[in-house]
Amino acid sequence: MNKRNFKPLQLHPENPHYFLFRGKPAVLITSGEHYGAVLNLDFDFVAYLKELQAHHLNHTRLFSGVYREVPDSFGIVDNTLAPHPNRYICPWTRSDKPGYYDGGNKFDLTKWDDSYFERLKNFMTQASQLSIIVEMNLFCPFYTKGLWKANPMNTANNINGIGFCDGTEVYTLKHKDLTTVQEAVTRKIVKELEKFDNLYYEVCNEPYASAVTMEWQHHIINTIVNEEKDFAAKHLISMNIANGKAKVQNPHPTVSIFNFHYCHPPDTVEMNYGLNKVIGENETGFRGKEDVFYRTEGWDFIIASGALYNNLDYSFTYKHPRGTFLEYNSPGGGSPSLRQQLKILKDFIDSFNFVRMMPDNSIIKGGQISSPLSGTPAQANITARALVEVGKKYAIYVNGGTKVELKISLPKGHYCAEWVNTKTGRMEKAEEFDHPSGNKTLVSPDYKEDIALRITT
To answer: How many domains, the chain?
Structure first.
């Protein structure tokens, strides 16, 4: 690739709430596996990536292998982050001394495993060929003592005498030997992935879940920035801010993506819109197994002007790399049918020139379901939101109800209104009209659970 023309995923220069990728505006939408595609040697990531691409999904989240889980973690069935004994691979090579947590030799934190980086770059290449953007998540805190017990940085699992501390002190800058190891692995990964354009880095998954200090996170950000200082082009950096919602305070100037988990409703998008950066939701779950929860969560988030939505999909396992496992009892959802429904969301948002649009629910002046959309407790769970290019394009999403009349404020013009079934993608009703300006009442067809409305000139 010509370095002069090399441009990794960027913020869109006209509207930095969205991405620019390979010369085109981009919103990232996916329903991806539990982040173990590379570290778990039993996982067929080629089949997995092809399944995403078959549904026009263009994103996946990847843990670097510095963190791993164990089979009983979080009640996840066949967790891809919990490989079988001797099927775990990570940036560090194994030594010649036995004694690792679940069998095999301990790790040498001063030497790299070439086979890991070969597998990682193969994964990145396969994703690149399918135009799938990879979030490389570098670190993750230890939710339990058992997870620290299994980690290569724990002194019991390496030959270097490094990591003689509690798991809550690993990401705090308290232990210079650990910090040195973390700096080195960050630099190595960044160097190895320099020439991939389908990539951004996330510093740490859920740092708020344990004692991960902001100073440590900023130190890792600076390590990425310093390693890339002589690169022909720089990769975007993400921070994972909170579960639910939070207002970002004093952001690091080089961070371009602010990711949240479990954003229903998507209030955090509005709270942080003024950052003029991408707001993403890169993990869902804990609402049940049914598709409706994660379909509606995705639609709400994207129409609120979110630019990244990643449903955590438990139908992907090492036995089912194409996401066909449906008999799971894991803490979330995921299925082939959900992936098809998220394709409909992606196709819907891609049908607009969304970089010219802004969230503006004020254009919805009221409506009827069985009582007004707003202002009555009976309708508290029914919402309508809009993404707008005034006088030209309107993307409206209604979550709840079975039929709706919306009063939409529109300037003078000739319009086409299309009601889209969020489960099938079918256009259920269409009408053209000349409008003198003011409020226009549009009546939906009957629907179940949710419906989308596209208005164009």
So the answer is: 2
Could you write out the DSSP letters of every residue in 86-120?
A: T-B--SEEEEEEE--TTSSEEEEEEEE-HHHHHHH
Of 320, 337, 355, the residue that ends a domain is 355
Q: What one-character DSSP code corresponds to residue 428?
A: E
Find the CATH number of the domain harbouring 322: 3.20.20.80
pLDDT of residue 379: 44
Sequence-ordered list of residues with C-beta below 8 angstroms from that of 176, at least 6 positions apart, any chain = none
The overall average pLDDT reported for the chain is: 96
The rounded percent of the chain whose pLDDT value lies above 70 is 96
> Could you tell me the pLDDT band of residue 375, with boundaries at 50, 70 and 90?
very low
Q: Vertex 64, ends 59 and 69: CA angle to 5°?
A: 105
The answer to whether residues 248 and 210 touch, using CB atoms and an 8 Å cutoff, is no
Both 411 and 327 in one domain: the answer is: no
316 and 179 co-located in one domain: yes
Task: Find the DSSP H helices in 17-113.
Answer: 45-54
CATH number of the domain to which 407 belongs: 2.60.40
Shared-domain flag, residues 348 and 366: no
How many of the other CB atoms lie within 10 Å of CB of 3? 10
pTM attached to this predicted model: 0.96
**Is residue 308 located within the same domain as residue 439?**
no
Q: Name 411's Cβ contacts closer than 8 Å, sequence gap at least 6.
A: 390, 391, 435, 437
- Decide: helix, strand or coil at residue 42: coil
Burial of 335 (0-12, 13-18, 19+ CB in 10 A): buried
Q: Give whole-number Cα distances, 179 to 84, 216, 221, 223, 290, in Å.
A: 28, 9, 13, 11, 42
Instruction: Write out the residue range of the structural domain in which residue 326 sits.
Output: 3-355
pLDDT exceeds cutoff 80 at 373: no
105/306 Cα distance (integer angstroms): 44
The alpha-helical segments, DSSP class H, found in 130-175 are 145-149
> Phi/psi at 117 (nearest 5 deg)?
-70, -30
Query: 304 is written with which tokens?
Result: 């609120």
**In terms of domains, do 315 and 401 share one?**
no
Q: Residues 6 or more apart from 244 whose CB is under 8 A from it?
A: 260, 261, 262, 263, 268
